[in-house]
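Supplementary Methods, section 5.1.

A reviewer requested that the exact input to the structure prediction be made available. We therefore reproduce it here, unchanged from the version used in the analyses.
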Amino acid sequence: MLHNFKKIKDFLPVIIKDEDYDFASILNLLRFKLNRMHCHFTSWDCPLDPSEARRIAKQIKYAIYLIDRYYDESGFEELADTLTWDKYEILPLRTPEESKRIVEFMEKDSKLKQEYLDRLFRHMAKYIQTWWD
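The structure derived from this sequence is encoded token-by-token as follows.
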């Protein structure tokens, strides 16, 4: 029973940040759960054969990696560094070339994010039923 209260306490910060209208909240919750599972399969008290536990942990780690790649904003930061900003650095002063680059970048980023989601859910569909000890 105490273990369940600890789990509730652990999940509380993730649940508090949850928004019903924000699809990314489910990815945050999924990442949190996967991270807990990864910790379990890499712990000394996992009841599985160590090679089996390592195999599952590796599969879970890849799912976490895909979620992290989905959230990676480094491309936006690199693009922002190349834009012309006003003197207060609040709004970019967009030239037609910059506007075109922004649109192209956002289209490319959107496709990439969709690819990460597709890979994540294909990966999970393939392995998730084996991720239990």
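The mean pLDDT is 86. These observations are discussed further in the main text.
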